[in-house]
From TrEMBL:
Keywords: Aminopeptidase, Hydrolase, Metal-binding, Metalloprotease, Protease, Zinc
Any one Gene Ontology BP term: peptide catabolic process
Name under which the protein is recorded: Aminopeptidase N
Gene3D superfamilies assigned: Dockerin domain, Immunoglobulins, Neutral Protease Domain 2, tricorn interacting facor f3 domain
Amino acid sequence: MTRLTTVSGLFLTLTALFFIPGGTFAQSSEASSWDTAPAWQIHRQMAEAKSRALYDQRYVDRIVSASAAANTQTNYDVKFYDIHLRVNDTTSILYGAVKMVAEATEPGVSQVQVDLFDNMVIDSIVSPAGALTYTRASNMVTVTLDKAYNPGGRFSVTIGYHGHPTEGGFQAFSFGSRLGKKVISSLSEPYYSRTWWPCKDRNDDKADSFKICIEVDTSFYVGSNGSLDSIRTASANSKRFYYAVHYPMVNYLFSVAISPYTIWKQYYWYNAGKDSMVITHAVYSDRYDYSLPRWGITPVAIAMLSQSYGQYPFITEKYGHSNFEWGGGMEHQTMTSMTGADFGFQEDVVVHELSHQWVGDMITCKSWHDIWLNEGWASYSEAIFYLNRDGWQGYRNWMTTMDWNHNGSVYVTDTTSVASIFSRTVYDKGAWVLHMLRGVIGETKFSQLLNTYFNSQYRHSSLTSAEFQALVESVYGQDLSWFFQEWLYGTKRPAYNWAYYTEPATGGGYDTYIWVSQVQTTNPLVFQMPIEFAFDYSGYPTDTITLVNDARREILKVHTAQQPYQVTLDPGGWILKYQTYLDWNMRILTTSADLKSGKAFLPYRDTIEQKGGIGPFDPTFVTGTLPPGLTIDANNVISGTPTDTGTFAFTVRIRDMYSGYIDQADLSIRINPADYKPGDVNFSQFMVDLSDLSSLVSYLTGGGYVLPVPKLADVNNDCLVDLTDLSILVAYLTSGSATMVIGCAS
Ligand SMILES: [Zn+2]
């Protein structure tokens, strides 16, 4: 029997819920073990439910993979589906008639390909002009149209069919039961619509609208998409549910949930209470009491998410929940399907699936590589909900529970693996990508991004990760490829070892040295991120200083008027990271960028600076060497005359012989080629002047001068260094008129 129960006491206004939190419901409810579960456990349940179902399906049925999507389907654009289904719950046979209205996108389109599993029996395929011919192969129906259509030319194809949709451990269309009551439901994500209804089964072509008519036994209620326009008697034993979807919808979101549910309703009030939208809950009758306070948060959750994302995207239709026999939740457009277990009534699960109405349903990932745009966003939306309801602490706490040692990249490289499409990394690290993006671009730009994104050309459409990146960059006004490269396509996270040291500065105030080293051995080896450091003082407001860190080891020197009693790395928790604070002891301050470059055959001198050591020091080379001709002494002074060119990289370990402290650093020195100038007799590589003249005089008069580079003194290029060269040099120095060249003397 059907119990259509309307609970009038639950027609609540938002105001009532805001001011009497938790006190609105007379019914009490037992606690759930999920109440205290962290986000990652919730997402593991969500992700594993999705991936397990799909894995079973693939394993049992060898269902075609997403990569099998035919490129030939790009020759038409679906506008509208009119779907009539009759469900025989006794024989478990589905009878369907699906009319697809589409437009050609290429000249001369005379054939179109429609996805439908081979086991479903086609009874007829017709157009308004009459019967159409077709062939079937590899779960694809190739239909020959009544004529050729040019771009914009509109045609319709109506496919009549019946059959028992392919079964597996779980399946896209399931004839199940619970406590002796039938539960018939669908879950088509990611590419299983084709197992039970003929369609162009791709994410990148949303139909603009749907009409849905489902005929079932009179004992059932049917939850489906869009607005429920009417329920009409079809026969003595059956009735029809008429739904209309007025917004674009991607195939995999078309769903049915059929069972003798208990129905209860709420309203979401908006426009200052002048308008309302119905919320329909189709719950298993034994879960009705349990559902009241838990699904009852829905109007508040819609308000909370609308606050950040803009108005609920299907505001002229409805929202709701239908229980179904599957281990998780599925964000079917305007009617989420939820497990009847406790998990399906959990606050964060309700919020997660609701948020998919914006992220996943209104804006859909264009391919399954980009699933984080659905699942990462929805997981992040939970934190948005807690931010808007509970403030920043609630937000941070929730983000923290999604911080674990994620594996793999957020971008899914292998879409044939359902486990990787629906992995927890996609959910949890995907949420962190958005959180970190917020940290990088700042609050003002992030709120502009939300406003732009949810009103962009991708609204009621789909997009790729690259398109998302381009949109973010257009809002931010700067390139962010480094960010997406490391966080979306890269794996793991930075591990920061760090230390700081404060001392009174000459001239007043204090200097603080912050030493940061990235020590992760995973890819990427270097993360570029702005790292905030908070400086806390006694009796003065906290300062925040940002280091744009993009090297394995960096030193930041900060001058402050007051003495900080504490410095904190990333106090706001904006970076997914590991961090280890080390004692300062002694740290090398010099980086490769600090060491001077030299020139071949010119004296070189620089010092590897440290802070904390007393000296003398005992520098040794762990790897590499100094440029030939250079040495380092017990004061860490590098000196000598380099005799070779190039970049010389080395790892130097410095031990303070006084304290025993040790630090090491990867450094490099670049030695540039010598600068040969004609007349530069003494090879100063600087300028030609009187000292060159006196050197040449000394050489020519037996004064004992040794020419370092004879060809520089052979300014007339006769392969001799003699008095002729001297007279040319004199003329050059006195009148500047003489021409000198590098000669051939050796
Ligand atoms: Zn989700």
